[in-house]
Amino acid sequence: MNSRGAAHHDGAKVGIELAHHFETVEQQRYAATLGIWAWLLTELLLFAALFLTALILRVTHPEAVKLATGHLKFWIGAVNTVVLICSSLTMSAAIEFSRMGWQRAMVRAMLATAGLGTLFLLLKGYEYYADYEEHMMPFLSRRPYELHESPASRLFVNLYYVATSLHALHLFTGIGLLLGMTWMAAKAGFLARHQNWIEVYGLYWHFIDLVWILAFPILYVVNRGA
Questions:
Q1: φ, ψ dihedrals at 142, nearest 5°
Q2: Which CATH class is domain 36-221?
Q3: Alpha carbon distance 174, 190 (integer Å)
């Protein structure tokens, strides 16, 4: 048997279909994992720059930032943190179920993950609406910013919106991808062909959770009561 035939045999043995441009299943899995990690690291650098700027503002203009953070809905941020931690648990369960070949349980865990992500977005949308009602959106010219006399607080709130809206965009995209994958995963034979998709996608979902776990203390907690 030639090497290509042996590779296909190996892929069938472990329950993963081997793409034609890879020699082994291990090489295919490594390439997929390396690719997602490389992309996630570039995204993490983007968020790190936003968070670092917010921390510098907290140090250099503590009073102005305290006024701004006083309008943030701490309880929503805290609840959303718990929601995303729970979604990480359900996503991890989906990955474990995929490894064991429990396709129906995997699909249910994926749907639970998407549901928790949707709950996060609904709560975040309510928080944005509350900010709108309180004139805490500096970029709306028809609704004057509440803290207009403080440029530092305006900058901090702008950073808050950029960071949280980018995170929400990543989460919205993740939910869409997850629902599409769930639809495909409900069909017979999915795990035999694409189990590694679940593994790779799990890294993306955990990245979304990690970003929020960093965002919550930096934007909502640090110096809040100082």
A1: -85, -10
A2: mainly alpha
A3: 20
The span from the first CA to the last CA of the chain, in angstroms, equals 71
Record the tokens describing residue 221, joined without a space.
């907690």
Determine how many CB atoms are found less than 10 A away from the CB of residue 158. 14
Spell out the SS3 assignment of the chain. CCHHHHHHHHHHHHCCCCCCCCCCHHHHHHHHHHHHHHHHHHHHHHHHHHHHHHHHHHHHCHHHHHHHHCCCCHHHHHHHHHHHHHHHHHHHHHHHHHHHCCHHHHHHHHHHHHHHHHHHHHHHHHHHHHHHHCCCCCCCCCCCCCCCCCHHHHHHHHHHHHHHHHHHHHHHHHHHHHHHHHHHHCCCCHHHHHHHHHHHHHHHHHHHHHHHHHHHHHHHHCCCCC
Give the span between the Cα atoms of 5 and 136, in whole angstroms. Answer: 63
CA dist 155 and 68 (Å) reads: 10
Half-sphere exposure of 206 toward its Cβ, with a 13 Å CA cutoff?
16
CA–CA separation, 96 and 106 (whole Å): 8
pLDDT tens digit sequence for 183-216: 988 888 788 777 788 888 999 999 999 999 999 9
pLDDT in tens, 162-187: 999 999 999 999 999 999 999 988 88
Q: Phi/psi at 65 (nearest 5 deg)?
A: -70, -35
Please give the Cα distance from 65 to 71 (Å, whole number): 10
pTM: 0.83
* Backbone phi and psi for residue 109, each to the nearest 5 degrees, phi listed first: -65, -35
How far is the C-alpha of 169 from the C-alpha of 43, rounded, in Å?
12
